[in-house]
Structure formats: C-alpha cells, structure tokens
Amino acid sequence: MVYILEDDDNIRKLINYSLKSQGFEVQDFALPSAFWTALQTKNPDLLLLDIMLPEEDGISILKKLRSNPKTSTIPVIMLTAKDSEYDVVTGLDSGADDYVTKPFGMMALVSRIKAVLRRYEKSDSHKELLEAGGIKIDENQHTVFAGNQQLFLTVKEFDLLVLLIKNRGNVLTREQLLESVWGISSEIESRTVDVHIRTLRAKLGEYEKNIETIRGVGYKFN
Questions:
Q1: CA separation, residue 174 to residues 10, 27, 97, 103, 122 (Å)
Q2: Neighbouring residues of 194: CB distance < 8 A, sequence distance ≥ 6
Q3: CB 155 within 8 A of CB 95
Q4: Which tens digit of pLDDT belongs to each residue from 118-138?
C-alpha cells in the first residue's frame, strides 16, 4: 500500500492513476488530518509526501513519523517543488529516504519507489546481532546498547552505525555512506552524512571515539 499526501488535485490523481496502472495499491490524501486518521488504521509500505501542505508542512509530518516507534520505519519519498541545497539537506536530515522535485515523470517516480522498497526488503533479509567496541546491536529488535545503556537512534543514525560496524576497520567515503544508507549519490547531499555522524556521536557519548574521521575521505569504525 502506497499513501500519497499531496494537496494538488491534478498531481495527486495523476500519481494515483500511474501507480495503480503499475499494480500498486494506493490511497491518497489532500489534507494531513485525513492522512493521520488513516494512519491509525494501517501503516503504508511507502509514503509519498509533499512538503508544501495546508494544515501542516511535510517536514513537520516527517519528523513526527520518525519520532514515533510505530511509524519510524515507514519509507518516505518527499515530493517538492523546491530543489535548493538547503531544502534537499533538510528533507534528508529529517529522515526522508529519497526526494523527487517537481515536475517529474511518472515512470521515473515509479522507478524511485521500487528502488526504495528494494532497499528496505534487502535490509530486512540481512539482519543480525552485532557487537563491537562496547556497542551491541540487535537488528531484528532495532535496539542499540552502548555499554549497559540503551540508545534511541533515528532510522538513519541506526543504519549508519550498522553499516560502519559491519565494515569496521575499513574507511567508508561519504559517497559510499550516502549511497548505502540513503540510496542516492550527490555531492550536494553528502553534507547530510556529516550531520548524522555528528548526532550519532553525541548519542554514543564516551563511545563516540569508535567512529574516526578520515579527513578528506570519510569515516571508519575502529
């Protein structure tokens, strides 16, 4: 099930029609209030979320979804007419899995949706117990412990930490991290990696030293 939250009637109906023609089950909403009501009954497999909305903007909605354990893992693709570096980074830093700027082609949108869903399916099939540097991770339970203290990470912080630990000792470039965790590759969005590393280190506390910055290259877990 794909949810569409878009207030432009023409765009919303076109996306609805295009996705249904590709075999997707779809439910669309013009108002955030209608979306929140539907969410009480069922979580979607993916959400297409416009940024500029009445009642409540898309970034605010995304942050609420990511802060709630019941909705934090819903894949979200942002739909926006804004394509500045600031808007892109803000969306990704808030937990978006991808973004598409208007105007966009329907087949290109369908391709991005399938790519995001494949990433989630792949990540679900390779979950395991991880332990390194005093940090313990249960991928199935989505829990992280630093020493005896449980940490509460965002989805992207969790994915970054898992990737770094699985590749411990090896340097991962910002581009590699961006591609693996967000599924995108762009110099503009590489700043979002630094932002997430900074917040992740802050939550790790005394264990932050496990993540080493390799200047001009990227990061590695020691």
A1: 38, 36, 16, 28, 21
A2: 174
A3: yes
A4: 877 766 555 678 999 999 998
